[in-house]
């Protein structure tokens, strides 16, 4: 089969690799029908995730059709259409028994495209398949369902829930990429007074406005002054970091009010200075986290009932064989207007070009 393979820092290739095989009775093999690219994949290519070795098949977000199951798999049958979760869960270790699946100690957690081969391929092996897949209703399209693999649960759990967004809050989301936009969508479920999006790319700020941000700001617009002007000088109740750079984390600490909450979602590949000399007396809560995906069934229900309006999150479509071009588009959002880039076996709808929206 063909797959997108990490070939070392800054290098990737769509190439032939061996077909995946069942290696554990709890495994399943899926035919990948729809797959997407994550900002974390770009961090891997930049060398920010050293655990990923050359030769690894990338990707941790896919919708597929079950092709084969191991002898111990009980809830799936060949032909089932499923979301492949970005998090695998053994279900029995101390963390899984508490619902903290991202910290699984028996070979789960974030493994796909990280410690084992991922899903940016024609076929993929999914460990712990009973607990790491979700069957899909026929009327939920692949393009919507693939967002349940990572960005919706990540933004909701690590951003909105960790940040304890509540009615009346002022919420700032730094980074209006796919995860930041999903944080805006899911923060709205809690009726904050206002949501402020900060990003350098105008197409992404337009998308943030369309998806529910009340105010959009570039770093050059003096975000601190704007946030203070709408909060009586106090700052934001919640700041969600959805980029993963020292500068964006530092901006979070300047925008937060006393007793506020900073929820870090971004993947950091460089050390960040924590200015405790400024923060220690402000009662600020800082949370970090890897998604656990405990919220995936709830989010699937909201998608199914149309309580989450995700229209516009996917901007570009490609066939699987154009993975290299898809990466180029996704990695240059300022030029392309790319938000979520989806690849699939099925015919794709027309491309939406955010640069002329």
From TrEMBL:
Transmembrane segments: none annotated. SMART domains: PKS_ER. Keywords: Metal-binding, Oxidoreductase, Zinc. Its cofactor is Zn(2+). InterPro entries: ADH-like_C, ADH-like_N, ADH_Zn_CS, ER, GroES-like_sf, NAD(P)-bd_dom_sf. Gene3D superfamilies: Medium-chain alcohol dehydrogenases, catalytic domain, NAD(P)-binding Rossmann-like Domain. Pfam families: ADH_N, ADH_zinc_N. Belongs to the zinc-containing alcohol dehydrogenase family. This is Zinc-dependent alcohol dehydrogenase family protein. It comes from Sphaerisporangium dianthi.
């Amino acid at each position: 089969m063909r797959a997108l393979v990490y070939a070392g820092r800054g290098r990737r290739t769509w190439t032939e690799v061996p077909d995946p095989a069942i290696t554990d009775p709890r495994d399943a093999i899926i035919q990948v029908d729809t797959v997407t690219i994550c900002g974390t994949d770009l961090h891997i290519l930049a060398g920010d995730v050293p655990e990923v070795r050359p030769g690894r098949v990338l990707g941790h977000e896919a919708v597929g059709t079950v092709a084969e199951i191991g002898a111990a798999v009980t809830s799936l049958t060949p032909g089932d259409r499923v979301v492949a979760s970005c998090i695998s869960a053994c279900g029995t270790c101390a963390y899984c028994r508490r619902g903290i699946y991202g910290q699984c100690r028996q070979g789960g957690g974030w493994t796909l495209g990280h410690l084992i081969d991922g899903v940016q391929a024609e076929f993929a092996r999914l460990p712990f398949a009973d607990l790491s897949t979700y069957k899909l209703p026929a009327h939920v399209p692949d393009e919507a369902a693939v967002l349940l693999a990572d960005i919706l649960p990540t933004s909701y759990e690590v951003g909105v829930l960790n940040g304890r967004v509540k009615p009346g809050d002022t919420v700032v989301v730094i980074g209006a990429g796919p995860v930041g936009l999903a944080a805006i969508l899911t923060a709205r479920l809690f009726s904050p007074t206002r949501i402020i999006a900060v990003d350098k790319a105008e197409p992404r700020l337009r998308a943030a406005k369309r998806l529910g941000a009340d105010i959009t700001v570039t770093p050059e617009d003096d975000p601190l002054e704007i946030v203070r002007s709408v909060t009586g000088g106090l700052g934001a109740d919640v700041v969600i970091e959805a980029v993963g750079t020292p500068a964006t984390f530092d901006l979070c600490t300047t925008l937060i009010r006393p007793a506020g909450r900073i929820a870090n979602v971004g993947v950091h590949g460089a050390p960040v200075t924590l200015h405790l000399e400024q923060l220690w007396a402000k009662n600020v809560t800082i949370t970090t986290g890897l998604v656990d995906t405990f919220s995936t069934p709830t989010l699937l229900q909201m998608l199914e009932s149309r309580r989450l309006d995700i229209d516009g999150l996917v901007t570009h479509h490609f066939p699987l064989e154009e993975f290299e071009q898809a990466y180029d588009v996704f990695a240059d959002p300022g030029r392309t207007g790319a938000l979520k880039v989806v690849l699939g076996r099925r015919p794709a709808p027309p491309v939406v070009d955010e640069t002329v929206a």
